[in-house]
Every structure is written in C-alpha cells, then in structure tokens.
Amino acid sequence: MNKKKLHVKTGDTVKVIAGDERGKTGRITSVLTDKNKVVVEGLNLVTKHTKPSAKNPQGGISKVEAPIHASNVALVDAKTGERVKTAKRKNSEGKTERYSKKTGEVI
Questions:
Q1: pTM higher than 0.70
Q2: Of 20, 33, 46, 74, which sees the most CB atoms within 10 A?
Q3: Of 79, 75, 69, whose CA–CA distance to 26 is shortest?
Q4: What is the rounded CA–CA span in Å between residue 96 and residue 93?
C-alpha cells in the first residue's frame, strides 16, 4: 500500500495558478491524496442542493468548496507572499523538513 505524496499539505497557504479561481490565494483545509486534489478555503465554491431531511427539515441551497487538482495550486511563502518551490532535507535532529529552494528557509 503505497501512500501518495503531494507537494502541499493541510494548512499550507497556496495560490491557484490555473482555472476559474486563477490568481487567488487561500489555505488548504483538506487533501484528497487518492484523487490528487485539495480543498482550498473560500475558493471554487459550487452550489449544493439539499433535500429536506430529519436533520435538516428546511433543505435548500448552500455554497460548498469543491476540490481543485493539486497541479493547479502552488505553495506560497508566508513572509514574501510569492510562489515557492520546495525540497526536503534532514535537519540536525534527523527529521525531514521542507525548505525553499530559492532562499533555503524552512517552510
């Protein structure tokens, strides 16, 4: 059972680089590794129609965040606000960490 890895993880700030939401930034709320998709907070909203049920007797229409393919988002550096490419290395304690290829700072 090989676990798929993506270049982003939950809690990262990303910028959408393709699609209808291009140019917007947001925080990742969940990662769907089996589908290579991510859900970004406040972006790619779709309307969802819900039928009345015991839990929700009113029913109605609501806006829900839909997943975006992981290749359409790029990681953003929190300090500069620019897109950043990352790599992994081991720190002095032997744990792996992500760092910016350009600046060398840990992300």
A1: yes
A2: 74
A3: 75
A4: 9
